[in-house]
Every structure is written in C-alpha cells, then in structure tokens.
Amino acid sequence: MSWLELPAGTGFGLANLPYGIFTSGPDDRRTGVAVGDRVLDLAAVTGDPVHATGSLNAFMAQGPAAWSRLRRRLVDLLTDESHRSAVEPHLHPAAAVTMHLPVEVADYVDFYSSRHHAENLGRMFRPGTPPLTPNWTHLPIGYHGRAGTVQVSGTPVVRPNGQRKSPDAAPSLGPSRRLDIEAEVGFVVGVPTALGESVALGEFDQHVFGVCLVNDWSARDLQAWEYVPLGPFLGKSFLTSMSPWIVPVEALAAARVAPPARAEPLLPYLDDTEHPWGLDLALEVRLNGELISSPPFAEMYWTPAQQLAHLTVNGASLRTGDLFASGTVSGPARDQRGSLIELSWGGAEPLTLAGGGTRTFLEDGDEVTITATAPAADGSRLSFGAVTGRIAPAGTPVGGLGGS
C-alpha cells in the first residue's frame, strides 16, 4: 500500500509507474513518473542528472538492470512512510504539468501485423482475389517511416497536401480528402545493437524499454496513388502521434498471452513457441468523445518480439530511441476495427454517429483519442494514458496551435 492516496480508476498505480517527460513551469524538461493523479519529478527526488536531460534516452540506454533497480526504488519510496517527507514535495498534480515527446526518436518502423486489418484492406482493394499477399503469413511486413514527424499527443494534425487521383481524372495537388486514423501500439528501444547483429526472440525484453500508444495518421488517397511499387511515403510521413507515457515492459508481465494460431509453419528465427509475446491490451478509439471502436491487441498475428527479430535479422542496427509500431490493431467484429477505412468500408458504408451525422473519413475539427488498458500484476488494470490529435485545415502553422 502506498502512503500516497491513489484515486481509483486512473490506471497509474504502483503496478504501472510509466515514464514521461514534463515541465511544470519554464521549459525545464525532466523525467516524471505517473502515480495516480500526480507526476513524480525523478530528477528532484533521485538527484540523478540522467533524469534532467529532457528525454528518456540516456536512462533507457542504461539497460534492464538499471530499469529494474529504479522501479524497485520507486516502489520503496512510495510505500515506505519514512520517505514521505522527502518525496511528497516533488509530486505535481498531473493536470498542472505539460507533457512532451518522451524520447528522441532515432528511427521509426511501422508494421502491418493484424490479420483482420490486412484481410479487410485486401478484400476492399483486391476483390475476387485472396485478401492476403503470399508473404503475409511468413514474415511481419513493415516499412521505414519518418522519425522527425513523430510528435507527442496533442500536436495538431494538419491535413496534408499531396497528389490525389480519381479513377477517371488526371492527378491533382491538394489537401487529402480521405484522412484516416490508425490505432496502434508502439515499442521503444532502449539498448542498441551493433551493425551486423540480430536480436533473438528471447532477447526482446533486453532491448525494448517500454510500450506506448501510437496513431499513425494516414492520407488514404495520397497513399493509394503513390505507394506502387515502393510503399508508403507522403501519405504517412506528415505526422505520427505518440502518447506521452511509456509503460515499462516489466509492468506487462501479467498481460502476456499466447498469440493466435499461425496459418503456416514459421522459420526458426520467428518461431515463438518458447517466447510468446502476445499482449492482452484493450484499446478504445473515440471520435469527438464518442466511442467508435474497441480493438483487441491480443488478436495480433505478429508479436512485437517477432517484429524486432525480423527487423534485425538482416543485421540492421538498433539505436536508443528507436520506435517500432504494430500497425493498425483490428479485431474480427465491425466495432473492433482500428481505422476509418475499415469502419466505413472504404467510404461505402458511412459510420453513423450517436450525436447525429456520419463519417467516412476525418473532417477538419475532428478530434481522435486512443486509450488502452492491460491487466496488472496486482489484479488491477494499468493505463497507457491517451494519444490525441485534432484535425486542422491544410496549411495551418502548427506553432500557432500550441504543438509541443
């Protein structure tokens, strides 16, 4: 039991203790830990300068032993009454702080790991043919994104410009007409590797520091015209939103589950029989406050450990701050689809909103919020916080809208 009163329902109890970067006044960014409805200033309470650098990178690079050591110390500080007088002055009301991008993102990779999502898009785009491409059940498909446009939750989503092409017209340049969401889960690398090394399935938690939420916004019309034959480019690179809190991998032991049954035998480096890293995370997607989808992460065909093994099997090096994301999380039911292109079936079946009106894709002014919870070791549910973005008209300067 903590000496700090922890309000019920925050999901930020002692079984969680996620890390983020915050300011409480001047732009003096430092590391904080979410505890109930407070943020604990780690730089102040520990005196360790690694927590005053303005990002989690330096701490993440210290590796699993340091991560576990600090986690044990935090539990002691928050449960032993003798520490109360030293710790309590460094607890800030969460509502009074500003959160920032938690890591300096080194590289960004996005995967395509939900079989339900891949099959839905295959049925839409390639009717009359098998919904999955021949390679899909043999390897985790992914692409390298743009690290510089990964931004913290709350950064305005400016509608991107690009080339669009209707079936019977020449290409035109203009704002995307089919702006979409992708409800995803992200994984943050702490411990790097040397060029030429690979990471085995059993080494996942020796390299990955923690887990966050991601909305990998997608301009479907730009993407549809540009992606053949090389894949996503401008349709994806304009913004990727990341939640401000990173839940330590160590906090997710109770959330580990076996992944779905595989359709094909896997090559040894992807055979996760002995190292299952399915995660029982429950996502929720809200549009302007209304719940429109509840994607289940436990349904994901490819696990994060398999993604990391495949990402590095060719010898590609990892860097501290690398972010890789799951791809859109979708389940088998209509209300479990993690993108509007699925929820509206490519625009053919508009989504009806409870407050009136419909949506096929996002309109200017729309706000999307993705949240998630998972089972915690103490029987409660831990929270990942939220990743939120509001759509601004094309050409809007982000600086004028308060992005941070």
Automatic annotation (TrEMBL):
Keyword Nucleotide-binding included in the entry's annotation: no
Domain Fumarylacetoacetase-like C-terminal: 109-373
Enzyme class: hydrolase
InterPro entries: Fumarylacetoacetase (IPR005959), Fumarylacetoacetase-like_C (IPR011234), Fumarylacetoacetase_C_sf (IPR036663), Fumarylacetoacetase_N (IPR015377), Fumarylacetoacetase_N_sf (IPR036462)
Keywords: Calcium, Hydrolase, Magnesium, Metal-binding, Phenylalanine catabolism, Tyrosine catabolism
UniProt: Mg(2+) binding residues: D216, K236, T240
Pathway(s) the chain acts in: Amino-acid degradation; L-phenylalanine degradation; acetoacetate and fumarate from L-phenylalanine: step 6/6
Hydrolase among keywords: yes
Required cofactor(s): Ca(2+); Mg(2+)
EC number(s) given by UniProt: 3.7.1.2
Binding locations of Ca(2+): D110, E182, E184, D216
Record-annotated active site: H117
Domain Fumarylacetoacetase N-terminal residue range list: 15-102
GO MF annotations in UniProt: fumarylacetoacetase activity; metal ion binding
Domain of life: Bacteria
Binding-site residues, substrate: Y112, R126, Q223, Y227, T328
GO biological process: homogentisate catabolic process; L-phenylalanine catabolic process; L-tyrosine catabolic process
Name of this chain's protein: fumarylacetoacetase
Annotated organism of origin: Paractinoplanes ferrugineus
